[in-house]
Each structure stands twice: as C-alpha cells, then as structure tokens.
Amino acid sequence: MSEPITTAVVGIGDISAVHLAAIAGNPRVRLVGVCDVDPERAAQASERLGVPGFTDHQSLFDALHPQVVHVTTPHHQHVPVALDAIEAGVHVLTEKPVGHTVAEAEELAERARTASVKVGLVLQNRYNPTSVAVRDALASGVLGPIAGGRASVWWSRPAPYYAAAPWRGRWSEGGGGALINQAIHTLDLLLWFVGDPVTVRGKAANLADDTIEVEDNATIVIDHEGGPRTVFFATNSHHTNAAVELEITGRDGTLTLAAGELRLTDADGTRMLATDAQADGARSYWGLGHALLIDDFYARLDDPEPFWLTPDVGLGALRVLRTTYAQSGLLPDGTPL
Ligand SMILES: NC(=O)c1ccc[n+]([C@@H]2O[C@H](COP(=O)([O-])OP(=O)(O)OC[C@H]3O[C@@H](n4cnc5c(N)ncnc54)[C@H](O)[C@@H]3O)[C@@H](O)[C@H]2O)c1
Predict the structure, then answer these.
(1) 194: left (phi > 0), else alpha (psi -120 to 50), else beta?
(2) How far is the CA of 8 from the centre of ligand 1 (A)?
(3) Which Gene3D superfamilies match (predicted)?
C-alpha cells in the first residue's frame, strides 16, 4: 500500500470533530498535527489524538510539512491560513465561507487559480442525494424552461451558541450571521440549481437577538441568468432546526424538497426522486455530506484538475449575501464588500 497522505487540522472547535472523524475513517490519510490559537485546546487535542499540537499554523507547517491542511477556524481566519498554506506548498480544504468579505475571498480565489496545490471548499450539501437528484432532473430537461423558485432555512441559534464562541456574533470575525454562517449552504444550492445571480435585492436585519451584532433574519429576491427569479428566506430565530425547504418550478414540472425528500410533480402526478438520510444527534442539520466531500477531496488529490469546489465556486453565495448586508446598511463603516 502507498504511503498515507499526511494531514493537519487548524482550528479545534465544534466542526473540527467532523473533519477529524472523516480523517480517522479514511485509511489513506494520517493525521500528523493539530493547531489552535487557544493553548489549552491545542494541548488537549494533541493529547487526545496523539499528535503534536501547535498554537500557530506556520509553526505547524514548518515543523511537520503536512501534505494537506483542514481550515476549521472562524471566518476571518480562513483566508490568512489558506494563503500561508499555499505559500508552504500545502493542499487546503477550508470550511465555508471562502472568506468573511468578498474582497479577501477574491484574493484567495485568484491565488488558488495559479497555485501548485489544491484549494477545496467545504460545501457538503452539494453531496446530498437530493442535491444530486435536483441537478440530474434539471439536466434531463424534465422541468422545461425554469420560471423560478424559493428556498428557506428556519433554524435556531439561541444565546448559548454565541456565548460559546463570540466571534459568531461579530461583524469583524464572522462577517455576518444567519446568512454567512448557516443559510449559505442553501443559498449556494439555489445558485447551483437555478443559475448565477444577475440582480440581488436583499434585506437583512437583527430582529430577535440583541446579544449579537450580526443579522438573524434575511429575505433576498434574486434574478438569475436567463430570467428565473427566486426568493430566499433565512432565520436563526426559529425554535428548532427545521429541514431546509426548496422548490424550483418550470413550464413542465416542479421539484419540491421538504423534510429531506425530493419530489417531482408534473402532468403524470407526483413521485419521489431522492431522500437524504438523517444524521443522528443534535447537529443532524449539518447533514451527512462532510465525510463524502472530505473523502472525495483526498481521492482526487492526484488529479491534474482542480478540486471541483474551488474558492471561485464559493464566491457566488458570498457576493449575494454580502450585497444583501450592504443594501440593508449593515456593513460597518469602512468594511469592504
Ligand atoms: N459546513 C458546515 O456545515 C459547518 C458547520 C459548523 C461550522 N462550520 C464552519 O467551521 C468553522 C469553525 O466553526 P466552529 O463552529 O467549529 O467554530 P469554533 O469557535 O467552535 O472553533 C473555532 C476554533 O478555531 C480556533 N482558532 C481561531 N483562530 C485560529 C487560528 N488563526 N488558528 C488556529 N485556530 C484558530 C478557535 O480558538 C476555536 O477553537 C467556521 O468557518 C464555520 O462556518 C461549518
């Protein structure tokens, strides 16, 4: 068997557990180090996982020369860590969003286009069976010309979620709230399914949570290339994490995603196309795509082509949501889009 691919994880918080589990479950990959700016977190993870721990990523790169790094830090640290990794010749798999502003995300996207290493973006919901089935149905032409659609994310992020990691509630570190942190996955799907945005009219606000700076609620109307129009709604003020809803309608049929089930309705009636298996546990709404995406990233590491989810792919949803913030007067003075 060939030598394992060496990897490291930078940012040992909530989501790192999912990345570490996927790494542990992939026999081709070996974890060689972890990093967190919090010395206690770095030390605990180092002991638990039996690998060296670091409090800055550059020291980790210099000491261990991993082939791959997973970036699971707060949003404002994605681009700085990813750029340093590219400079050090380390492949990058970064969590969404690409960056906390469009300006810095564009910088990473540009650098990634000519990098000698791969830069992948975690948009795991693209691996959902229902997402794949929507793309297949649209490619088959079964809907006819698309008129439009709608998508909504009714989730709950109560005060303890922000108290546990205050960056999530701050513009300077999170770059936003419900849209950039939670609903970005569904916004990305909507653009992937219906097409690139041409015009965006959005309104975001903090309506219910005065413990945070960022928005907890947003509505966006998007005109897509070719003419379809969609309406997007997101809130973090629901009382549960409800299943995402999404609907796309065309001249000949309608696709409806609800409760993790995708149905097609056309002249022949309604039939089920695909179902997403439900993950267990309190974080089940993260979906099951992480392990699929991470395994796919490693499986394609030797491909001559870039990994299909590049920073460029992530710019679409980021531009729509940051434009919504700007249109709502929410971006702090002097903040770039
Ligand atoms: N894809 C998904 O479904 C999903 C779900 C949850 C979180 N996320 C993403 O994962 C990322 C982390 O979110 P989280 O909820 O795990 O955050 P968290 O606050 O729980 O963990 C982040 C960790 O990074 C550390 N950190 C901060 N700056 C660092 C740096 N420069 N170098 C090393 N460590 C650093 C912090 O000390 C903390 O331990 C975010 O980008 C978030 O959007 C994605």
Answers:
(1) alpha
(2) 14
(3) Dihydrodipicolinate Reductase, domain 2, NAD(P)-binding Rossmann-like Domain
Could you tell me if residue 334 is left (phi over 0), alpha (psi between -120 and 50 degrees) or otherwise beta?
left
**Tokens representing 220?**
């966006």
The strand pair at 229-235 and 146-154 is best described as parallel
Q: What is the C-alpha R_g of the chain?
A: 20
Whether 100 is in the pocket of ligand 1, judged by its Cβ within 6 Å, is no
Ligand 1 center from residue 242 Cα (angstroms): 23
Domains of the chain, CATH where assigned: 5-124 (3.40.50.720), 125-281+310-327 (3.30.360.10)
Regions of the chain where pLDDT drops below 50: none
C-beta of residue 52 within 8 angstroms of C-beta of residue 46: yes
pLDDT number for residue 286: 57
CA distance from start to end of the chain: 48
Q: Which residue has the tokens 């003419």?
A: 227
Strand order in the sheet with 245-250: 197-205, 217-224, 229-235, 146-154, 245-250, 253-258, 261-266, 269-275
- Check if 8 has its Cβ closer than 6 Å to any atom of ligand 1: no
Element (H, E) at 230: strand 229-235
| pLDDT score, position 277 | 79
Cis ω before 74 (30° cut-off from 0): no
Scan for tokens 């606000």, then name that residue.
205
Q: Closest Cα partner for 229 from 153, 149, 152, 321?
A: 149
Which H or E run contains 32?
strand 29-35
